[in-house]
Amino acid sequence: MKKFKLIVAYDGTDFHGWQIQPEIRTVAGELKSAAEKILRHEISVTAASRTDTGVHALGQTADFSTDNPIEPSKLLHALNGVLSDDVVVKSTEEVPENFHSTHLSKGKHYRYVIRLSKIDDPLTRRYHWWYRHNLDIGKMISASKFLVGNVDFKGLEINCGKPDVETVREISKIEISRNNDDLIIDVFGKSFMYKLIRSIVGLLVAAGNSKILPEEIPEILSEKNEHRKTDVAPAKGLTLIEVYY
Predict the structure, then answer these.
(1) How far apart are CA 112 and CA 68, in angstroms?
(2) Is the pTM of this model over 0.85?
(3) Residue-wise pLDDT tens digits, 40-74
(4) Do domains 2-95 and 107-244 have the same CATH topology?
């Protein structure tokens, strides 16, 4: 028995997220189906991050075990020959049997892109949030300082209806930069709740358009608010860039 580690990239637009679901197109489902055609036996696919519907990836990490003697290079070419055009396996390598994409991850890097322009770009619109209003980047940077460290996000109510979900998460770094019309928000951390990064982006945008003050963020995070002043940013602007081990 051998275990393979894969780096996978995908356009999440037409997928219902990563996790396998019955009769619904998912990234894990596509990868599992392709691998089983090649290996000729059933496998179980594990990933570092269960990305949501519409979220993209450039560096998702996945793994599975097989008793097929196929070499990593042949597996790479075979998978890319079977997979649909919106999923690509960028690399394959054999790893120890105790490797686990989820449990051994030391951190993840996500990037969110907001397009600040009066007119959208039809060639890239699947990969950014088109935002037609001005944003004060200085206020967004000030707001981001309240979101770094060990932060309790219970006030965002994004536990997906599961009251036992741990709401304290460690955000190691948030970087905000401008590249022409693109406002780029890079978020680094070990693990994230459902919709957490998109909720963080929503908070930053609310600060940037003066809907909230940066110093209001601790209060927003600390208690439930039936009349939320912030929104969850659209999924299409979010990409998993890399997973660290």
Answers:
(1) 39
(2) yes
(3) 999 999 999 999 999 999 999 999 999 999 999 99
(4) yes
Q: What are the phi and psi torsion angles at 196 (to 5°)?
A: -65, -50
Q: β-strand 129-131 against 107-116: which pairing, if any?
A: parallel
- The SS3 assignment for 64 reads strand
Domain spans in the chain, listed from the N-terminal domain onward: 2-95, 107-244
Residue range 2-95, CATH number: 3.30.70.580
| Per-residue pLDDT tens over the stretch 181-206 | 999 999 999 999 889 999 999 999 99
- Contact of 92 with 73, CB cutoff 8 Å: yes
**8 Å CB contact between 56 and 12:** yes
- Angle formed at CA 177 by CA 171 and CA 7, multiple of 5 degrees: 60
Cα–Cα distance for residue pair 136/147, rounded to 1 Å: 17
Strand partners, 5: 63, 93
Q: Of 46, 49, 74, 63, which Cα lies nearest the Cα of 1?
A: 63
Residues with a known catalytic role:
52
Domain 107-244 has CATH 3.20.20.10: no
Structure tokens at 44: 């179980």
